[in-house]
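Folded chain entry
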Amino acid sequence: ENEGYVFKEAITNFLDERMIPELCELTSDKINILNSYFLDPICLGELESVGPRCNKFKCKLAQYVKENGPRIVHTLFNKESPLGSLREAAKFLGKELSAVFEETEMCTCGKKFIKAASKCAPSYYGNAVFEDMGGESYRMVNFATAMRNIDFDAAGKAATLLMDHLCEDTSSGKCINSIVEVAAKAGDAYETTFIYDTYNAAEAIHSGDEEAMIEIMKKCDNLLYFHIHSYEKPTDKPFGKYAMHAKNFYCDEYCKEGRGNFYPCCMRKMFGDKKMRENVLKVIES
């Protein structure tokens, strides 16, 4: 099935000649400045320390990109895509995410890969960086300084906690599958909102048309109704407007039962993870 989809020649050559040989065959006792591009000796050594079961993780990921990437990109973005709605796009993406999680053992090996990468990141300096900087010394110094100041330890902890949440078992399989189901519902609501808006629903709401408000409030399949309350209470707090939108969307008493579950338990636990938030803040502050 994948034989009909391939990347352009330049990308295919890059994968075949540079990425896959390095990620699948190169070992820390053979790496040098001439045969490496993405990896440096320190990072390759850390990635090899994940153990025999997960040592092939980076190779499996590269192979998956080559074998499935063209089909995924074509299906999602080509004008002749068979996907007819945001719901279908979310379902398709969820299926592909499930496949890559399973094939690469993301929930086990992905976490080990994150920990290894976070250890070597402060000193990372592969040939890809040198090429991207054009060999200009001031840019390379700035890059090295930034890498040493970023709190990669906190970044690794936050990413590991995120992976724990995404891999939590749910009635849909994994939490990532539950989130995809929510995305599909949100896609339906987003598209329905535009259908309603062609009848100037938003304009009627903002102008204070009570009848229009009542009609919108009776329908829980769109994203218009929660604007009614959010615009009544302006706020200067960071992300305050988005917090009000989220509260009105998830907590509206009239709609939350009939609309279905837009906030699965695992997703609530993920957003409520204090340790993950604290580590993200450490990265931002660094």
Summary: The chain has a mean pLDDT of 85.
